[in-house]
Input
Amino acid sequence: MGDRFESVQQVREGLKAVNYLADEGIAGVAFLADRLGKPVLVEGPAGTGKTQLAKSIAEATGARLIRLQCYEGLDESKALYEWNYKKQLLRIQADKNSDSWSEVHDDIFSDEFLLTRPLLEAISADDPVVLLIDEVDRVEVETEALLLEILSEYQVSIPELGTITAKQIPMVFLTSNNTRELSEALKRRCLFLHVDYPSMEREKEIVLTKVPGITDNLADQIARIVRSIRQLDLKKAPSVSETIDWARTLVLLGIESIDAQQAKETLHILLKYQTDIAKAAKELSVDK
Amino acid sequence: MLDLLNGFVAELRNAGLPVSLTENLDAMEAVQHIPIEDREAFKYALGATLVKNNSHWRAFETVFEVYFSLRGPEYRIGDGDESDLDEMWREMQEQMRQGDSKGQAGGSMDQLTPEEIAQMLMQALLNGDQALMRALAKQAVQRFAGMEPGRPVGGTYYLYRTLRNLDLDGMLEKLMDQSRQDVGGELTPLEERLERDEYSDRIEQFKKEIEAEIRRRLVADRGAEAMAKTLRKPLPEDVEFMHASRDEMQNLKKALGPLTRKLAARLARKRKHGRKGPLDFRNTVRHSLSYGGVPAEPKFKYPRPAKPELMVVADISGSVAAFARFTLMLVYAIQGQFSKVRSFVFIDGIDEVTEFFKSTEDVQEAVHRVNTEADVVWVDGHSDYGHAFEVFWERYGKDVGPKTTVLLLGDARNNYHASQSWVVKEIRQKARHVYWLNPEPRSYWNTGDSIVGEYGTHTDGVYEVRNLRQLEGFVEKLA
Output
């Protein structure tokens, strides 16, 4: 359907050009999403670059990013569309005497009085867009149903107006932290992509691209330490973004190569729970 | 190709993965865009369309390996790559000869002694040389596994035979020694740790190569269908708590978080969507202003959300040891979701362990403390539900109120002690709900010393909870 990309390789290169290092799986699924015209459900631990993926795809394809942040209590009027009630009132009052009722009635339910919200906006856009539905697991199961029509048919039905169909099929990314199981109906409509912590080599690459002025040696060391830490049984393993933060800190501190002491002192950037920090510090220094 | 995919999907379904028709069609469409020669991309294309749950990925991978193991240029079994290996070997010898000028006899791989293979393996692991590792895995399997066509032995047997000959544990130590030498002296503890992780990682990788190689040979021998059948393993949600291995336990632990959140959501939702409360007079009057003082739109008070209180009473005796461990983790997870949870554990005595879970963020530590510090043994350390319940009623019975939901966890194997089931009856009268979760298969209930039926009559329901799927079912029903 789409032809944004020629091949998987091109996806990778395109993403690399905007400083996003995709692995085989990520690039492959993005390529397929484009080809099949299907949304992608991206799942995985926090801070592994799920949202960033959508942003980078938008940047790489030169599309506009439309973002819908999900939260508990999200409803139709915030996700899809809303009638501009005040404007409608004004319209009615403006020609109280002249028009017949049916005319006004038809008139106040037209495009002019429709407020588009992210989903409708993505559908009705003329320019290329990437739609990002962020943290979809936060909405209630019932609200998920709102998304189904747009995800499978790329259209929105408005009772008063009829059905609005997409002029071009946007790329859609849904992200989820897996705090709850999403409904089968939603999953069935999407391609599924699990983004896990990167391999050591990829993490090193990421650090090298994201942190200017870092030496190859330090990046290597950082990636290796982070991998060791992730193997521990922690409450919250360090995410990629935390790794990058840590790398930045070390560069700012002018450290060329980490020793146990320095690692211990800066661990709190990598880990956010006191128990985790204590455990990691213990493992890194006394371990035999 | 179509046949292959159909067989593949059928096998996924056999393995328990829910693959719907639309997903199947998606997969068919997806593979048209991806060349089958690009095996990794092909795998991800199938995965993205067919597997919608990360915990199923492993099962998917296994089936994929079996069905597509003989495809793709680097995955053939054949003589073609032997020559590559020989070349590599010769190259290495060249280097060695230059290095220490000893001069070894050049020859093909098949004539190597085991020592030489070990030497090569060490080099490969030291440098992280993927190609050499793969080649060596092939060689090792060919040489050590002693595979015979048509022999009805599982892959694990061959794996064991191969690994026994390679001594990979000793290899780790040797590698560490080597890197110590390279540095010339002692490594700092941090470096030591990092090196060790690195090498274990590589060795792990090498083991996987061997496993894959064995699997390939078995598939070639027996055919994909038969092989897939022998490799079938229960999905994480079907793993029985009582017989879970360590790895499986890890997976279960991960799945617990979402489940307890769901439980909390279920209990909370009842409050939100429940019936409306009495008329809210002030609010009604306020809204009547927009109708010129006519109370056209009556407003109601929403019932104050009552915070659900939960009491978990769990058996942690030996007969349910595996389940108990899981129970404790469940309790820990529940505690994070509810504001008011009290947990009790018992064998023949009972003790409250709420504090152990509250005071620490580390579930392992909490479980450890429960196992070591809780005062749960009264006489002999054999389960006595009767006595435990009696003491529970005596000490904590007054805390059970109309808002409390009580969860009783255990197999109700009472060692023929008095059942004291009147306690459960009393609890039920005071509490909102009482549920019993039993980790035993239903067919074992009420056999031998199990008296779950007697207790069960006094509860709001007894549920068989042997695996995650059933636990989820229970949570669903709760709403």
